[in-house]
Specification:
By secondary structure, the protein is mostly helical. The chain has 2 domains: 47 residues, Orthogonal Bundle (Arc Repressor Mutant, subunit A), CATH 1.10.10; 164 residues, Orthogonal Bundle (Tetracycline Repressor, domain 2). Helices cover 70% and strands 4% of the residues. It has 9 helices and 2 strands; from the N terminus they run αααααααααββ. The chain has a two-stranded antiparallel ribbon with strand order 1-2. Helix 1 crosses helix 6 and helix 4 packs parallel to helix 7. The longest helix is centred in the middle third of the chain and has 29 residues. It starts with 10 loop residues before the first helix and ends with a strand. Pfam families: TetR_C_46, TetR_N. Keywords: DNA-binding, Transcription, Transcription regulation. This is TetR/AcrR family transcriptional regulator.
Length: 227
């Protein structure tokens, strides 16, 4: 009886399978503790095949960083619809950010914890992703200033500082949200909107940014008294 031939898996699919296993391993065990044997076993392939496809542990880690960074940036850009007012764009972008980091905690760990502490090459990959998000947030802040008709010409240094502060706060809040049971992406986004958009002054006076009731609808968020 002739042997049954199994269908060969396409290289691209096999490679993604290896990256999935690597992200999980790096995210949970850390770069130094993770082993290629462990990654190969989790991916269901031989260790020589991992080396054949991705060359080395360093190259594998870099590939994980690039994939996870692209996925995060794509999620934020897709979430912040350009047809919405500036505050709704920021709200939608933040919600997409926190949703993505909550659904992909290992990928977020690779980007925010592991890559930054294991060499300039890895840190540079993450810095490039972060710079893209900061540039995107900068444009949202400029759009908000134009919408407010108050100060459409904010100093460039001030806008840059605000964007850096907002992105830094989002990164820290994502760590907190992932480590705190019961915190949803929507709650995390609302917390940051109240801190960044309404401001501590308004919060102390009982006014906060109210998330839209239906994220798919056209209702706009607003700053209003707490009921």
């Amino acid at each position: 009886m002739p042997a049954v031939k199994t269908k060969r898996m396409p290289r691209a699919v096999r490679e993604q399978q290896m990256l999935d296993a690597a992200v999980q391993t790096f995210g949970r065990r850390g770069y130094m503790a993770a082993s290629m044997d462990e990654i190969a076993e989790l991916a269901g392939v031989s260790k020589p095949l991992v080396y054949l496809y991705l060359n080395s542990k360093e190259d594998l880690f870099s590939a994980c960083i690039r994939r996870e960074a692209k996925a995060l940036v794509d999620a934020v850009r897709a979430g912040a619809r350009p047809d919405l007012p500036a505050d709704r764009q920021l709200w939608s972008g933040l919600t997409a950010f926190f949703t993505h980091t909550a659904r992909n905690p290992d990928g977020w760990s690779v980007l925010h914890l592991q890559a930054r502490t294991h060499g300039e090459v890895f840190a540079g990959e993450v810095a490039a992703m972060r710079a893209e998000i900061v540039a995107f947030v900068t444009q949202l802040i400029l759009a908000a200033a134009r919408d407010a008709h108050r100060d459409p010409d904010l100093p460039a240094a001030e806008v840059a500082g605000l964007a850096e502060a907002l992105v830094g706060a989002a990164e820290s809040l994502a760590d907190w949200a992932n480590a705190t049971p019961g915190v949803t992406a929507r709650q995390a986004a609302a917390t940051l909107m109240n801190f960044a958009w309404a401001g501590l002054g308004d919060l102390m006076h009982g006014r906060r940014w109210v998330p839209p009731a239906d994220d798919e609808g056209d209702q706009q968020g607003s700053t209003s008294p707490v009921r």
